[in-house]
Amino acid sequence: MPDITTNRSAAERGDRVAAILAGRYGLTARTIEQLPIGQGTVNYRAVCDDGQEAFVKNYPAGTDLQAEEAAIALSARAVEAGIPGPQVLPNQDGDVIDAGTPLAVSVWEWRPGGVVTLLSQPQLAEAGTELGRIHALFAGLPATPLAQESATQRWRDIDVEDLTATIDQLLEIIAGRISAGAGAGDAFDVEAQRTLLERRDQLTLVPELLAGLPAELTVQVLHGDYSPVNLLFTGETLSAVLDFRPPDPFLVAYDLGRMAFYPNTVTGDADWLGAAATLIRAYRQAHPDVAAVDVRACGRVALLQMLKSLYGVRQHYLKPGLFQDDLDEFWLIRHRTVCVLLAKLTATDTLLTGLANA
């Protein structure tokens, strides 16, 4: 049976969004559609009476709106420099975020294209080129030595004991569900139990993997969430880069490695090392000043980032997300990626050393 309360509240929220568009932006929405995307915001597509389409991002209560305004400024800087992406539409007061009602929103022009999670060779090259252009553009933005040191130390400070304790907590919950019988457990419980047991063993490798990283890695302002889910393609052409995050300086190798070794690529492309090479070559051509050390390290950084994350499975058992089924699949595919990258660590390091020195 449908959840009538949820449907009603979603419809009411859509009506409130329509009222904001009319009262604060001068846009009369003919239809408002909530999109099944995003975990941090509630997102809508609005089709207006004049034919204009808009993307509306609703920020939940407690969001740091100043930080989000800074993220919007980064997006605007990128678009001004020729990076494909949407323009934010200011409200009647010229604000990029309308916080005049309890439903804080930003409104953006609608961009053509669709998300592709397993990229073709031309799409990989396009994605690498635009990431290189973004890093080159943002390289000159302020990032104090203190911010650089803090970002590096924060990332390297992996508390294996705490992660293991969380895994044990999740395993205890799962064991209780499975032992309860009578359908209390489900297929995901079985998979979660298996993968968490594997992850607990894999965490013992963290000190060795960290020791294999160079002491100094570049820290600067980044896109912050550059991945296929935030890229729109029209055919083989990248038509929009979406969802820049606030300008909190972080590891260049993180942004590069996350994209080059994206889970869908590693688990879905038989030649995932070749795919990574295509993306990184395009990236380096667009950003020739990137430090070789960041290219060499990006595979291990991507591996460690996934290895230390319980995102998805933690939410499933402790605090379900907005689209938890997506998070469940995200956990499983990232775990498979960790297993592949660990098994092919030497081959990955060899590839990246060659690309860095080319």
UniProtKB/TrEMBL annotation:
<feature type="domain" description="Aminoglycoside phosphotransferase">
    <location>
        <begin position="32"/>
        <end position="288"/>
    </location>
</feature>
<keyword id="KW-0418">Kinase</keyword>
<keyword id="KW-0808">Transferase</keyword>
<dbReference type="InterPro" id="IPR011009">
    <property type="entry name" value="Kinase-like_dom_sf"/>
</dbReference>
<dbReference type="Pfam" id="PF01636">
    <property type="entry name" value="APH"/>
</dbReference>
<dbReference type="InterPro" id="IPR002575">
    <property type="entry name" value="Aminoglycoside_PTrfase"/>
</dbReference>
<dbReference type="GO" id="GO:0004413">
    <property type="term" value="F:homoserine kinase activity"/>
</dbReference>
<protein>
    <submittedName>
        <fullName>Homoserine kinase type II</fullName>
        <ecNumber>2.7.1.39</ecNumber>
    </submittedName>
</protein>
